[in-house]
Amino acid sequence: MGEDNQRESLIDVGNNLVNKEIIDINSIKFKRIMFLYNAALKEIKTKIEILQEELNLFSNYEPIEYVATRLKKTESIVAKLKRKKCELTYENMFERVNDIAGIRIVCNFKSDVYKLVELIENFQDIRIVSKKDFMKKPKKSGYMSYHLIVEIPVNFSSGIMYVKVEVQIRTLGMDFWATLEHKLKYKNPNILKSESKNLIKYAKIINNIDDNMLTISNRIEKEKNENIMIEATENKEDLGEKKIFFKL
Q: Of 134, 156, 174, 200, whose CB neighbour count within 10 A is largest?
């Protein structure tokens, strides 16, 4: 196969993604598809890092504590298709499994989560496929987070392909709970019912802590802004000028 044909088959939707062929995890086709997801992860991670720098430099606003990315393991992709009772085809892999590529954005406060959702929605070249607010309506397990399924444009030498990525945005407290819950429960089917109930209770406790931390942060920010306005007004009075109130 020549170089041009290899390049074409890499990004051709008909050949690679919308295909009723049975998945062969050892094939070059599967490796190429996973390459697409990995490329999409790099694209969105770069966008988030640029956004983080911009907010810090231009607005003195640092909502993001850290960012993590992951590609779903092959066995997890197959297991998810089986749970959904889907035939193990490339078409179903692309259409029915939305979290093969995932990025997690961990914030300080709940307000930061919603602000970041708004900013990501405003990215001009990203398509929003779906949104789920598990903060306002937590899962039965106690899990809280905000999920977006987005389509990221990935530029290749012979065209652009939109690839789905799951974006999870949550607070430090939510991430702490979710990480430990995954290790304790998701990978341990023999966990006791009483222990599962305790995990739900701990999720509610962390949610209360998040709310209280946000209340403290809002009070400090309000006080800081009021002090700035008072100082600005006093400076104007010293110069014999009229009081001027301005929005920061």
A: 174
Long-range interactions of 194-197: CB distance < 8 A, separation 24+: 196/141
Question: Could you report the per-residue pLDDT of 147-166, keeping only the tens digit for each?
Answer: 999 999 998 877 888 999 99
The chain-wide mean pLDDT, for the chain, equals 86
> Which is nearest to 167 in space by CA: 107, 117, 111, 95?
117
Q: Is residue 12 part of a domain?
A: yes
Is residue 43 a part of any domain in this protein? Answer: yes
47: CATH? 3.30.460.10
pLDDT tier at 49, thresholds 50, 70, 90: very high
Share of the chain above pLDDT 90, in %: 66
The residues near 39 (Cβ < 8 Å, ≥ 6 apart) are 154, 163
Q: Lay out the sheet containing 64-71: strands in order across.
A: 64-71, 101-107, 159-171, 146-156, 127-133
Q: How confident is the model at residue 185 (pLDDT cuts 50, 70, 90)?
A: confident
Contact 154, 173 (CB under 8 A): no
Q: 0.90 cut: is pTM over it?
A: no
Contact 174, 206 (CB under 8 A): yes
Q: Are 151 and 98 in contact (CB under 8 A)?
A: no
The answer to whether position 243 is within a domain reads no
